[in-house]
From TrEMBL, chain A:
One of its GO terms (molecular function) is sigma factor activity. NCBIfam families: sigma70-ECF. This is RNA polymerase subunit sigma-24. One of its GO terms (biological process) is DNA-templated transcription initiation. It comes from Candidatus Kaiserbacteria bacterium RIFCSPLOWO2_12_FULL_45_26. Belongs to the sigma-70 factor family. ECF subfamily. Pfam families: Sigma70_r2 (PF04542), Sigma70_r4_2 (PF08281).
From TrEMBL, chain B:
The chain crosses the membrane at residues 69-91. Pfam families: DUF7282 (PF23951). The keyword Transmembrane applies. Keywords: Membrane, Transmembrane, Transmembrane helix. Residues 156-236 form the DUF7282 domain. It comes from Candidatus Kaiserbacteria bacterium RIFCSPLOWO2_12_FULL_45_26. This is DUF7282 domain-containing protein. It comes from the Bacteria. InterPro entries: Slg1/2_DUF7282.
C-alpha cells in the first residue's frame, strides 16, 4: 500500500480516519486469509472483527523498525484463528487441526458443499506449514518475502517449503491426469477446510 | 498472473530440479491449485458495520510525536544543563585548596573507606564475571531503565551446510537459550543444538554447535526459551518465548545452502 507507513504513524497519533484507510485496504485481504482457514462465513467474520479490534488497540505497539505493517496485521490474524480454535477446546494437536469437527460437519455447517474432492485427500497429506505456504502463495499471490514475514522464516526457507510441498503433492497425485486434478480442485472451495498451525 | 505463475514454476524447479522432467504434470497441478482458489465475497454489510464500530471506538492515548523544533532544541537544552552542572565543580577545583595531609583519624577512616571501596569493587567484578559487560539489568519492581524496553527478539539468516548455526542477533528479557530444531513435517522436531545460557541482554553472532550437520535443501527452526532457574536447558520445563506483538511462539524457520545465497 502506498504511503502505508504515514497512515500507520497517523493512526498511532490518534487519527482514526487514517485507521479507516488501512481498514479499507486490508479488510478483504484479512477476511480471505481467515476464510481460507475456516470456510465458515460467520466464524470468518467474528475472527476478522477480532483482528481489527486488536490491531486498533495495539496500534501503538507496532514498531516499523521491526517489520512491515501488513506482516504484523497478518500475524495478528493468524494468531486469532489459533485462539479461536483453542477457545473451542478442540481435542486435537494444534499443529494440525485439518480434521477438526469433521465428524460433526454437516452440509449445513459449511457454506457450500458438494462432496469431498480428490485434491482434499492430497492436501490433507501435506504438513500444516506446507498447506499454509501453498495457500498464501497460490491463492493470495503473496511474495515469498511477505509469506516469510507472516509465518516466521527466511524467504528462502519459505521457497523450499513451497517447492517441497508441490513435490510431495505431485508424488501423491501419482498418475492422476491433469484433467482429473483440475476437476477435483474445482470443488476444493466447497468442501475443503484446513486450519494450519505451527 | 501469468508472470506470477511462471515465477512459481521456476522457483519450484530451482529447488526441486527433478520436477522439471515432469513439467506438464507440475504445470497442470499448480494451474489446478490456482483455479481452485475459492471465490470469496465479503459481506458489505459486515464490512461497513465493522468499520463504523472501529472508527467510533475509543483508541488508546496517542504516541507523542515530537515536533521538529523539539528535535533540535532538546540536545541544546541538554548541553546547557550539563554545562551548568559542571561549572560549580570546575570553579571549586580551581579556587579551593585541598588539605595535603589528613589527621590520623581521618586517614584511618579513609583507609576503611578504601577497603570498603575495594570490597565493593570485588563484588562488582564478581557480578561482571556472572553478567558479562553490556548485560542489561533485570528490573526490580518499580525500577525504570534509561533504555527503551525491547522484547525478546531473534534475527537469523539462511545458513550454509555445517555443524554450526550462527544467529545474527538475540535479545532476551530473561536468561535463556537459543534452540535449533529439525523441521519435522513443518513443525519443530528433534533438538539439534542449544546455545550456552545467555543472560538478559542483546548478543550478536551467537554460534550454536549441532549434534548433526545441517543439510542442503532442508529447513530448520530456531527459537528462544527462558530458563526455569536451573541453568540447564530442558525443553519440557524451560519456558518458550512468545512474540509480544502476535502472541505466537517466537520461532524462525531458515533454509540451508551449500554456499551463501546471493
Amino acid at each position: 500500500m502506498e504511503d502505508e507507513s504515514s497512515y500507520v504513524t497517523k493512526c498511532q497519533a490518534g487519527d482514526t480516519v487514517a485507521f479507516g484507510v488501512l481498514y479499507d485496504y486490508y479488510i478483504d485481504k484479512i477476511y480471505r486469509f481467515v476464510y481460507y482457514k475456516t470456510f465458515v462465513k460467520e466464524v470468518a467474520e467474528d475472527i476478522t472483527s477480532d483482528v481489527f479490534h486488536k490491531a486498533l488497540v495495539k496500534i501503538n505497539s507496532f514498531d516499523s523498525s521491526k517489520g512491515v505493517f501488513s506482516a504484523w496485521l497478518y500475524r495478528i490474524a493468524r494468531n486469532a484463528v489459533i485462539d479461536y480454535y483453542r477457545s473451542q477446546k478442540f481435542d486435537v494437536p494444534l499443529e494440525d487441526v485439518f480434521e477438526v469437527g469433521a465428524e460433526d460437519r454437516t452440509p449445513e455447517s459449511i457454506d457450500a458443499l458438494s462432496g469431498l474432492a480428490k485434491v482434499t485427500e492430497y492436501l490433507e497429506t501435506l504438513n500444516a506449514k506446507q498447506r499454509e505456504i501453498i495457500t498464501l502463495r497460490v491463492w493470495e499471490e503473496m511474495s515469498y518475502q511477505e509469506i516469510a514475514a507472516i509465518v516466521g522464516g527466511t524467504e528462502d526457507s519459505v521457497k523450499m517449503a513451497f517447492s517441497r510441498g508441490i513435490r510431495d503433492l505431485r508424488e501423491k497425485c501419482g498418475d492422476v491426469s491433469p484433467l482429473t486434478v483440475f476437476l477435483a480442485c474445482g470443488s476444493v472451495a466447497e468442501s475443503l477446510r484446513f486450519i494450519d498451525f505451527t | 498472473m501469468p508472470d506470477t505463475f511462471e515465477h512459481m514454476i521456476e522457483d519450484i524447479y530451482t529447488l526441486e530440479p527433478t520436477l522439471r522432467e515432469q513439467d506438464a504434470e507440475v504445470r497442470a497441478l499448480v494451474s489446478s491449485l490456482v483455479s481452485a482458489k475459492p471465490v470469496v465475497a465479503v459481506d458489505d454489510t459486515f464490512v461497513q458495520s465493522l468499520r463504523r464500530e472501529l472508527l467510533t471506538k475509543v483508541v488508546p492515548a496517542p504516541k507523542a510525536i515530537p515536533s521538529p523544533w523539539m528535535m533540535y532544541l532538546a540536545p541544546l537544552g541538554a548541553m546547557a544543563v550539563l554545562i551548568l552542572m559542571l561549572i560549580p565543580g570546575y570553579l571549586s577545583h580551581n579556587t579551593v585548596e585541598l588539605p595535603t595531609a589528613a589527621p590520623e583519624i581521618m586517614n584511618t577512616e579513609l583507609q576503611m573507606d578504601a577497603d570498603d571501596g575495594a570490597a565493593d569493587m570485588n563484588m562488582k567484578q564478581r557480578s561482571a564475571d556472572v553478567a558479562p559487560e553490556g548485560a542489561s539489568m533485570m528490573m526490580a519492581p518499580g525500577e525504570e531503565s534509561d533504555e527503551a524496553f525491547v522484547g525478546d527478539m531473534l534475527i537469523v539468516s539462511d545458513q550454509v551446510e555445517g555443524r554450526v548455526v550462527e544467529v545474527a542477533t538475540v535479545t532476551l528479557t530473561a536468561p535463556g537459550f537459543v534452540v535449533v530444531q529439525a523441521d519435522t513435517e513443518g513443525v519443530p522436531g528433534a533438538v539439534l543444538g542449544v546455545s550456552p545460557m545467555l543472560f538478559a541482554e542483546t548478543v550478536d553472532l551467537v554460534e550454536i554447535p549441532l549434534t548433526s550437520a545441517l543439510k542442503r535443501g532442508q529447513t530448520y527452526f530456531v527459537s528462544l526459551y527462558h530458563d526455569d532457574g536451573d541453568g540447564v536447558f530442558v525443553i519440557e520445563t524451560d519456558f518458550p518465548v512468545f512474540d509480544v506483538y502476535s502472541g505466537a511462539q517466537l520461532m524462525f524457520m531458515f533454509g540451508v545452502y551449500d554456499a551463501m545465497p546471493q
